[in-house]
Amino acid sequence: MTTTVERPATSGQAEPARRRRPKRSPLAKREDRAGWLFISPWVIGFLIFTAGPMIASLVLSFTDYQMIQAPHAVGLDNYRELFDDPRVLKSLSNTFVYAAMFVPLGTVFALALAMMLQRVGKAGGFFRTAFYLPEMTPAVAAAAMFLLLLNGQQGLINKVLGWFGINGPNWTADPNWLKPSLAIVSLWTVGGTVIIYLAALNGVPKQLYEAAELDGAGPVTRFFKITVPMISGALFFTVITHTIAAMQMFDQAYTMFYGPQQKATASDESLVYMVYLFQNAFQFFKMGFASAMAWLLFVIILLITFLQVRIGNRYVYYHGER
């Protein structure tokens, strides 16, 4: 009696051999090494001046460190104190109010300047330079200049308003006008945004405007139906960057309200988050608590940016998409 051994059925095609990664040529390897060599200054700088301090601040946020003594661990005490300190919540609310004022105001102001700049013709080069030059001005110098311009008694802005019969407010002393004055000062730095918007406006196809005009669309309709959708990518980018900058605003507020001459009259209505963080770190020497504040701000900015990206992507038009 013979037995037969059944072999498992096999498909008609043999199993393909596993693909091997092709060997990189010596030229490609040399190009890789050259690439890493060229970016190594940035990588080293990032590790030393960005990643290293971030890791150190994260570690310090779990310690009590007063700079004159070695840090000792306190667990989550610094983070608990964040929610118990009323000035943390006050400074956060002031920062949110300032950001809610500056981001839309700065966006509209920069877009208006860009649209005006698009129509100046041959003088465009001069005005592009003139609008961008304020970006090169140190923030402290600009804040000091506006501290004089916004003076309630002798400031130039109130004098100009007086020519039209308007009694200007006390910008830098009235608690109701402290955050609006900061938003006005921050408009000094929108020159870079103007250039971005101008490039986006110049990239809108002229045929779209001609077709809309033939269909009877007016200037307002053309603006909202053509201009805004076509430059929505630039608007989206600048809104995110303006929001991040507003949440980290420090120079203007500190110079205008917490400088050597203003410390005695500083009000909590002008206390923004970064100023209070600075005070805890370098005036109260609470480095651990200040590090916890920094990481709280990092998480808040991360969440806000995430929401902006999720919402904004629904309305942004990219030229490469169909």
TrEMBL record:
It is found in: Cell membrane. Pfam families: BPD_transp_1 (PF00528). PROSITE patterns: ABC_TM1 (PS50928). CDD domains: TM_PBP2. Residues 92-308 form the ABC transmembrane type-1 domain. Residues 18-27 have a biased composition (Basic residues). It is a multi-pass membrane protein. The chain crosses the membrane at residues 34-56, 96-117, 129-150, 182-205, 226-250, 284-307. Keywords: Cell membrane, Membrane, Transmembrane, Transmembrane helix, Transport. Residues 1-13 have a biased composition (Polar residues). Residues 1-27 are annotated as: Disordered. InterPro entries: ABC_transporter_permease, MetI-like, MetI-like_sf. Belongs to the binding-protein-dependent transport system permease family. This is Carbohydrate ABC transporter membrane protein 1 (CUT1 family). It comes from Kribbella pratensis. The lineage of its organism: Bacteria, Bacillati, Actinomycetota, Actinomycetes, Propionibacteriales.
